[in-house]
From TrEMBL:
The keyword rRNA processing does not apply. It comes from Goekera deserti. Belongs to the UDPGP type 2 family. This is UTP--glucose-1-phosphate uridylyltransferase. Transmembrane segments: none annotated. Keywords: Nucleotidyltransferase, Transferase. The keyword Transferase applies. PANTHER family: UTP--GLUCOSE-1-PHOSPHATE URIDYLYLTRANSFERASE (PTHR43197:SF1). The lineage of its organism: Bacteria, Bacillati, Actinomycetota, Actinomycetes, Geodermatophilales. Its EC number is 2.7.7.9. It catalyses: alpha-D-glucose 1-phosphate + UTP + H(+) = UDP-alpha-D-glucose + diphosphate. GO terms for biological process: UDP-alpha-D-glucose metabolic process. It is an enzyme of class 2 (transferase). One of its GO terms (molecular function) is UTP:glucose-1-phosphate uridylyltransferase activity.
Length: 300
């Protein structure tokens, strides 16, 4: 329901809030296509029709931009519709991530597939999904993305128990390592967490996960948790591996982290970065201790 971003999300799905000048979901679809997955199924719910509109063609807008000769904006509009083939299915009821993934069973069939959560952005320079696909190809089973968030923060995430690191992810120079997952628990108390490694919003799953989800009763929060289904697979002897990510991740589901993501991505842009970096240096230098800008007049 996007309650963290009210009142903006009264009318705009949180997944379409702009991160610089593109919604978070466009970054997600581009990531999937870059990894060689051009068929994308979005699992949505009520009041999310604007998402389908965003990935649809807009002939009137395109014609107006073409008539004006505004090729750069026309290209930007085409990027959102041409990057991948996007399909949609509705979840119906918000019964948890596991239940949402189950809605994709007919679309996926008997093939491995990736799950990308819409509020987790991975920097385009860090090919996490490609690494995970390579690990799944090598080991089979399921692969999950992990991030060391510190034990003091682990109660906000799904946590894992692991064996010792096996190796560095194939084709990776960032130092990301591959581990065998031996246990999973959703949002454990800090003193009961099996590690400080948190599950983040990237999964590469085998189709066996669907039967595991069907057999998984509601868990924490009364929802069908994907974490619980993956634990069922581990207990049945199916291989589940994790890629411990050491790259750049942006959480757009939290207001402060959302703002950080906008700034971090904007400063890397050729068109915005130089001027924004210069302004940021000046702005930070003006900040008094204890907060506030100290300014009495608007600045450009």
């Amino acid at each position: 329901m996007g309650t963290r971003f009210l009142p903006a999300t009264k009318a705009v799905p949180k997944e379409l809030l702009p991160v610089v000048d593109r919604p978070a979901l466009q970054y997600i679809v581009e990531e999937a296509a870059r990894a060689g997955l051009p068929e994308v199924l979005m699992v949505t719910g009520r009041n999310k029709a604007a998402i389908e509109d965003f990935f649809d063609r807009t002939p009137e807008l395109e014609a107006a931009l073409e008539k004006k000769g505004d090729q750069s904006r026309l290209d930007a509009v085409h990027e959102s519709t041409d990057v991948a083939q996007v399909h949609f299915v509705r979840q119906g009821e918000a019964k948890g991530l596991g239940h949402a993934v189950l809605q994709a069973a007919a679309f996926v069939g008997d093939e491995p597939f990736a799950v990308l959560l819409g509020d987790d952005l991975i920097d385009a320079r860090d090919h996490l999904l490609e690494q995970m696909l390579a690990v799944q190809s090598e080991h089979g089973g399921c692969v999950i993305a992990l991030l060391d968030v510190g034990r003091e923060n682990i109660d906000k995430y799904g946590a894992v128990a692991i064996e010792e690191a096996e190796h560095t992810a194939d084709g990776d120079s960032s130092g990301d390592t591959v581990v065998r997952v031996t246990g999973l628990v959703e949002k454990p108390p800090v003193d009961e967490a099996p590690s400080s490694l948190a599950i983040i919003g990237r999964y590469v799953l085998s189709p066996e996960v669907f039967d595991a989800i069907r057999a998984t009763p509601p868990g924490r929060g009364g929802e069908i948790q994907l974490t619980d289904a993956l634990l069922r697979l581990v207990e049945q002897g199916h291989p589940v591996h994790g890629v411990v990510f050491s790259g750049r991740r942006y959480d757009t589901g939290d207001k402060l982290d959302y703002l950080k993501a906008v700034v971090r991505l904007a400063v890397e842009r050729d068109d915005l970065g130089p001027a924004l970096r210069s302004w940021l240096v000046e702005f930070v230098a003006q900040l008094p201790e204890g907060g506030g800008t100290g300014e009495t007049t608007p600045t450009a």
